[in-house]
Amino acid sequence: MILWLLACTGPGVTETVEAPVEIRSWLEGEVSEDGGTFVVQVERPANLDVEMSVPPSDSLEIALEGEPEMEKLGDIVVDTQRWSFRGSAGHYEIPAATANWEGGTASSLPLYVDIAVEAPPSDEPMADITEPTKVVVIPWGWIALGVAVAATVLATIGAIARILLKSPPPPPIRRDPPDVLALRAWDAVRADPTLDDHAKAVELSRIYREYAEAVLRFPATKWTTRESVAHLEAMPHLPQGNVPRAKRLLRATDRVKYADAAMGGDVFEELDADLRAFVLTTAPVHYASGQ
């Protein structure tokens, strides 16, 4: 059974090692006076067994949140687990955790957590700011020029208004529906040779979240991956298969955005299929029919 380690205080902090196993973690949400939550991921080959070890902490209370989640991306398996932590006010350091397998070891960076404490004040006092005495000068020349310009502008606006009142109103602007905008934006990203995997993952996450927010009417651009997936699971009329598609899209792009993980093999092709299937099965009827 894989033992899990705790995350670091910011997104995407991990130690790069020459190894087939990677450990990465990031903070999910804010750290409150009661503690917080960390997301921990272990990336490993599908045919490799990994044993994790976590040094004990005498100063924090650590608890597992839910069951581990396992996701296969090509020939790579990504295990995800969330941990909650509690402790009294103060600064904490959690030692690095290690992952051991036959032939190698990988380790994370230490975790630094601040609970219910503010940044220490600077030792140097701020110098007093002495404001100079204000001298009021009335710019009569500029005032006269401003009055003349204002009169000219008002006369021009009046003439334009008279013309517009006699003209028919312009036709309404037709806007492309969200499903067309989303797939067009993603095609442009895929065709751009200047974008690396990280940039493509950021754009894919943005395109999916903006589409979901526009069509499904929930703040997908502001919610975390966990909140978005939970909301989709609670939607009774969401077409079958779209919850797993959303999970793969969000988690795969999170790995690249927050942990600088590489997209290997045909992962982008799989995510392209997930995005298109999600969009085509959730596009509103009046958009799909061109009304």
Structure description:
With 291 residues, this protein is an alpha+beta fold. 37% of the residues lie in helices and 23% in strands. The chain contains 7 helices and 9 strands, in the order E-E-E-E-E-E-E-E-E-H-H-H-H-H-H-H. The protein has helices spanning 140-166, 178-191, 197-216, 225-233, 242-259, 267-282, 285-288, and strands at 22-32, 35-45, 51-53, 61-73, 76-86, 90-94, 98-101, 104-107, 111-115. A 4-stranded antiparallel sheet has the order 1-2-5-4, covered by helices on one side. Strands 3-7-8 form a 3-stranded antiparallel sheet, with no helix packed on it. A hairpin with a 2-residue loop joins strand 1 (22-32) and strand 2. Helix 2 packs antiparallel against helix 3 (197-216). Residues 1-10, 12-17 and 287-291 have low confidence and may be disordered.
Number of strands: 9
What gap, in angstroms, lies between the N and C termini?
55 Å
The SSE string, one letter per element, is EEEEEEEEEHHHHHHH
Side-by-side strand order of the widest sheet: 1-2-5-4
**Uncertain spans:** 1-10, 12-17, 287-291
The amount of beta strand, in percent, is 15-25%
Oligomer category? single chain
Largest sheet: 4 strands, antiparallel
> How many helices in DSSP terms?
7
